[in-house]
């Protein structure tokens, strides 16, 4: 662990005070899991606390990886001479940490269990005792320097007994009637000294720091470092929000990561206050309704149950009835779903009005919500299988769409009467919704106009009342509020620009292989349905009556459960086997993909094995997300090192309109939620990629760096 290496550095504050460490995971009510550490100190040395370890790790490790709880032991738990961190937090009986847990309550001491001790044996621990009262008197004020006192205390007492701040008060000791220190009078003197030495802006920032860190105002000075004082990334976000409200200024979300002390933040705030402010709308000028409706109204709650209790069972019954009937008589297209959804759209919501504000859970909002659920239950039917049929589907729902428009199957569109799309537009897997929530629980419907020849990138968001000029190219992970980042180079990053096979190849090869994989994935459910077919293999005159009688018979539930369970449990394995066989066959016939331009709750080892089978290079102990990684076109171009952690709902793009290229993730890297990585990305060892990051094409992110978000087409680096 890096704290052990820091203890070997003569310039480190914990030099010579740590002989062995071990990291483990412990629970947190918001973050779910955070880092804890077992620390072994040499005999005769005082224990370092969290503040001192954080100070030693500040230049060595990213803040999210700092330990949040310390357990002092005489040795680290081991088995067969290997560290044994499994279930250590449970064995120690550590409480779940919260945002209200004080740093002083995060220090424990325990006796290390003997090697080979079973995991069900608990480990006794106790919280380290803190004595808060200490007064130092000296008749020579010039010798009382705070930094000298700190230096001496680090040698004399354990780290958690060192005060967070030291203040010098001139004159005799102030005592009350009980001959004890008058803390109120001392605090008043300290506050007056502090107020006289700092600017008004620093005074207000100190107050905000103290509230966020749960400290007294006297404990915060202009030199107080937010993270060294016990702050974390969640608290940093809340503090930045408080600073924005307090000073009515705009600040970047990463300001505390770049400027972590009170004085540095005060300078940033003063600079922001000095800039001319754009005229802002008052709350009463913003859209919103005066009348509101209760979301807990019993009638509204019953209405919300209709999609689950009526629409979905009705649709499932219709599908199963038609499926059984089709097995005996004939085949029909599944176009009925979309027709039903379209009829509900017309009957319930009618034509959507532009620019009107409606109260949520009112009559119109309830009709709108019910319509969305009907469309969600019904789906696109056969219209969802091809690009031109998707365009027809959206046109049938009221959208005005031009010629040669390509819409990704996963693109999220809604309020179709308010959408106007010009010719030659490309919509990748993006969100294009004219709906927005306004003040006083109101919904606002405003049109979206996308000009001709526009491209909207992966995971981009088109907000309501947007008018994209002709030829605009929004990149991945951006929004219509970031028009200054739109550039022509983003056009080639869309998945629609990937060269497609000739239609003959699609019909003869791609289409047949897709049908084969789809059939194999449904084969287990079809096999489980054989008892139904065998039982009703005789054709009668009134087949509808026979099917209705079967549906109301007690055996229906057993057959239905058998088919659903078989399809849900065995179906994914059959699908993966079919994909693997197709992949191996294509590799043998056409060769594996290579980089180059186009001519024109455990470590999920099974997932790693599956990715390796598909051609990817995956190291050991990789933590995969439950939702997987989307849009990996060529697994042969994916390289993942050891000890890599992935967040959920990330998207890796190995092929675009420019060409193919590798995506390389180094050892020990962390890739957060909703990350979009474009071809050619190289993430270094132990690099942290935060949530919502956009990794540009051919971008290189060095070892031991921290990045998050997106700005001007690339991720933002933290210092």
TrEMBL record:
It comes from Trichophyton soudanense CBS 452.61. The keyword Chaperone does not apply. This is Carrier domain-containing protein. The chain crosses the membrane at residues 299-318, 339-361, 503-536, 557-582. GO terms for molecular function: phosphopantetheine binding. Residues 196-273 form the Carrier domain. Keywords: Membrane, Phosphopantetheine, Phosphoprotein, Transmembrane, Transmembrane helix. Gene3D superfamilies: 3.30.300.30, ACP-like (1.10.1200.10), Hexapeptide repeat proteins (2.160.10.10).
